[in-house]
Design brief:
- The complex is a heterotrimer.
- In chain A, about 80% of the residues lie in helices and about 0% in strands.
- Chain A contains 11 helices and no strands.
- The longest helix of chain A is centred in the first third of the chain and has 34 residues, at about 20-55.
- Chain A starts with a helix and ends with a helix.
- Chain B is α/β, with parallel strands linked by helices.
- In chain B, about 35% of the residues are buried.
- Chain B is built from 5 helices and 8 strands, in the order E-E-E-H-E-E-H-H-H-E-H-E-E.
- In chain B, a hairpin with a 2-residue loop joins strand 1 (about 5-15) and strand 2.
- Chain C is an alpha/beta fold.
- Chain C has 2 domains: about 30-110 and about 220-280, 3-Layer(aba) Sandwich (D-Maltodextrin-Binding Protein, domain 2), CATH 3.40.190; about 110-220, D-Maltodextrin-Binding Protein, domain 2 (3-Layer(aba) Sandwich), CATH 3.40.190.
- Chain C contains 11 helices and 12 strands.
- In chain C, strands 1, 2, 3, 4, 5, 6, 7, 8, 9 and 12 form a 10-stranded mixed beta sheet that branches. A two-stranded antiparallel sheet of chain C has the order 10-11.
- In chain C, helix 7 (about 150-160) links the parallel strand 5 and strand 6 (about 170-175).
- Classes of the chains: A mainly alpha, B alpha/beta, C alpha/beta.
- Chains in contact: A-B, A-C.
- The interface of A and C includes residues 88, 179 and 184 of A.
């Protein structure tokens, strides 16, 4: 227990003193996760909605593919990301390995299946009257999709939130694709792992508490936003 | 008068059970048609078939006109999240302030007595208010075939009156109304189909 | 219409501003990728050496720290421009197989044995063979990393070179990193084999002390190897050679020599002009 209490006090001190390593890792975690989830949301929500609203051969297989992809461990995604982005890889010319944008790429691979599956699930289960009303009133397809997403916005928001939480706390992708370079590609997760391996448990606990605090804070903020417009 | 639609040998099956059968029926433009029958006789199903949202049937349905704009009111209408105004104007294409469609929206809301509900969020409406909002939404786009499933439920006599008056102003569309039992006295039916 | 365009513009500006939060290096910067071991990174020496190099050559150095095997594997695949490791046999193979070109050993230190305060097993001042024999014969508590790391491999090499098999009951393999292994050895008040920098880092939490056992086999030699530029066009051969050159400069050697943890010097540079005999024995 003492280790945890010391960790908390050390962590606060590190933040207040503005320790550059900690602040750099914290900002990077936020920046990478937000960017990845933003891109993944645009792609994932579009794909998920399309899958829910259009029948085609093999649709079931595609849905199962995305659902199954949600369970892929982050180290495997990291490995795939590394293989694609390495100098010898298919996307090697993009020079993304060991950069923040590289981690964004990898985390998109993590987030997209989550958002696709949960969006598809909620839209394909939505009240049948919604699509009937929209289609009979002959609004444009864009307007219809916006309506569906608006009606299912709680579920879609939760999908995005879930994806964000997974990206923010994941370790495997950031380590393998980012390389854990000091002040360049370290996130809170990778820094925690690093400090633990170095034996600096105080700092490690400090970093994970910061990780937890920010994750909870963001969750609360988005939850409040969602509740606000129910009025 | 020219025909709007005609139906022949309609059988609608769900899980191999016939839930609606109709030997023949037809409607002309501008007619007001009532459909009635016992519970489970397939009244709502018939309306859905006409609307084009029920596809599992055998038989012949033909529309004389091409690409009919259909207005359909669910038996339990679904109002989208947002204000009454947003719902009523949902189907409007031209949203500039003084467009004919927007003016029609204002007019319908006042005819149906829901003008002062304009900025209310729809989940706070009573059953009768919600139904009138849904009706306004359906009528604002000037459909040529209007299909209403129990439009008078939840309405008080003032409301029923208002709806009948509004429907009376629509002279160029064919109106089909489903009712479980009797129709309001003010409504002038040209045809009654009993299932 | 106006608000639509205005919103789009705001969105674009917001996106552009957000992207500046990226903090990746600018595209045109000259970058060098170095793979090294975690213990090398953790010693902190590179943080002292590299900034001077970056300033001198106006470049950025990315230091990727993994296990020895992984570092050399990165080199083999041409994923990095330089490897800095301390595994002489593997280094030889690496160069022999034309994965590396310039092979520059540039510093060294020793592995050490540590044990309880009064050395109850009386291993001090024995030669390696006698000490290991004693440990095995008398069933003395000895904690090994057992994780196939560079340190572990060296430990196994010592046993085999001394023709002793550590099969006694009190030979414990932790399968963990050096720090944890030291902690466990401390709890058991047994003996263990460690690199000097990790020991110095953990010294204050431990009641373990260096045991004086001399042997050439305890020397831990660090080398830089430039990766063969013919592997892929993306290898920064010029900058790699520049780093090799830089590590051979006397100024660099001085930085290496003066580097300390907890008041103890950690490494002995190979390219120092005058060797100071006082630095030879720093136990």
């Amino acid at each position: 227990m003492e280790m945890i209490w010391n960790g908390m006090t050390d962590g606060l001190k590190l933040l207040i003193d503005g320790d550059p390593l900690v602040l750099d890792a914290a900002w990077r975690s936020i920046w990478v996760s937000v960017t990845a989830v933003f891109i993944a949301s645009i792609l994932g929500i579009s794909i998920g909605t399309y899958l829910a609203r259009h029948k085609f051969r093999g649709r079931r297989a595609v849905v199962i593919f995305f659902r199954g992809s949600m369970g892929v461990p982050t180290v495997l995604i990291g490995l795939i990301g590394y293989a694609l982005l390495s100098r010898n890889g298919m996307l090697g010319d993009l020079d993304l390995l060991f950069t923040s944008w590289g981690i964004v790429f990898g985390e998109c691979l993590l987030a997209i299946p989550i958002i696709v599956s949960l969006t598809h699930g909620s839209i394909s289960n939505m009240d049948y009257r919604i699509s009937e009303t929209a289609m009979l009133l002959r609004v444009s397809r864009w307007h219809r999709w916006m309506t569906y997403l608006n009606e299912c916005r709680l579920a879609v928001t939760l999908a995005v939130l879930t994806a964000f939480a997974r990206c923010f706390t994941e370790l495997g992708i950031a380590v393998m694709v980012g390389g854990n370079l000091k002040m360049k590609t370290r996130t809170l997760s990778t820094s925690t792992a690093l400090e633990t391996a170095k034996g600096d448990f105080s700092r490690a606990v400090a970093m994970s508490f910061i990780l937890l605090a920010i994750a909870i804070l963001v969750t609360i903020v988005i939850g409040l936003l969602n509740r606000e417009d129910k009025d | 008068m020219s025909t709007m639609f005609s139906i022949e040998n309609l059988v609608v099956n769900k899980n191999r059970n016939p839930i609606c059968t109709l030997d023949s029926a037809s409607a002309s433009v501008s007619e007001v048609i009532g459909i009635t029958g016992a519970n489970g006789s397939g009244k709502s199903t018939l309306l859905r078939v006409l609307a084009g949202i029920e596809t599992g049937f055998t038989g012949n349905i033909s529309f004389q006109q091409h690409d009919v704009q259909i207005g359909y009111l669910h038996q339990r209408p679904y109002l989208f999240r947002g204000t009454v105004f947003a719902n009523v104007t949902y189907g409007i294409k031209d949203r500039t302030i003084d467009s004919p469609e927007m003016q029609r929206a204002d007019w319908l809301m006042s005819e149906l007595g829901i003008s002062d509900l304009r900025d209310r969020i729809c989940d706070s409406l009573s059953g009768g208010e919600a139904r009138r909002v849904a009706l306004a939404r359906t009528l604002v786009v000037n459909p040529t075939l209007i299909l209403l499933d129990e439009p008078f439920s939840d309405l008080d006599s003032v409301g029923i009156d208002a709806v009948c008056k509004t429907l009376a102003t629509i002279t160029t569309a064919t109106i089909v109304i489903v009712q479980p039992n009797s129709f309001p006295a003010e409504l002038q039916l040209d045809q009654l189909i009993k299932l | 219409m106006n608000t639509s365009i205005r919103n789009l513009l705001l969105l674009l500006i917001a996106t552009a501003m957000w992207c500046t939060g990226c903090r990746d290096s600018a595209a045109g910067i000259n970058r060098l990728r170095v793979a090294t071991t975690t213990s090398t990174r953790d010693s902190g020496l590179l943080d002292e050496l590299i900034p001077g190099f970056e300033r001198q050559f106006n470049c950025e150095v990315d230091i990727i720290a993994v296990g020895t095997g992984a570092a050399l594997a990165y080199g083999e695949r041409g994923e990095v421009d330089v490897v800095i490791v301390h595994a002489p046999k593997s280094e030889e193979d690496f160069v022999r197989n034309a994965h590396g070109i310039e092979h520059v050993p540039f510093m060294q230190n020793e592995f050490i044995f540590v044990g309880p305060k009064d050395d109850p097993a009386e291993l001090s001042n024995l030669d390696l063979h006698a000490a290991l024999n004693q440990i095995q014969k008398e069933n003395i508590a000895f904690v090994s990393r057992g994780d196939d790391s560079g340190t572990h491999k060296r430990e196994l090499q010592l046993w085999s070179e001394s023709a002793v098999t550590p099969d006694h009951e009190n030979y414990i393999e932790t399968g963990q990193g050096m720090g944890n292994t030291l902690v466990i050895a401390n709890q058991l008040q047994g003996y263990t084999f460690t690199d000097i920098s990790t020991y110095l880092k953990f010294k204050q939490k431990l009641d373990l002390h260096p045991i004086k056992i001399d042997s050439q086999l305890l020397i831990n030699r660090y080398s830089l190897i430039t990766v063969n530029p013919e592997k892929t066009s993306k290898i920064n051969g010029k900058l790699a050679s520049a780093l090799a050159e830089y590590l051979q400069q006397p100024e660099t050697a001085e930085i290496i020599q003066n580097y300390q943890i907890s008041g103890r010097r950690l490494f002995k540079p190979i390219f120092l002009d005058r060797a100071d005999p006082a630095d030879e024995t720093d136990h």
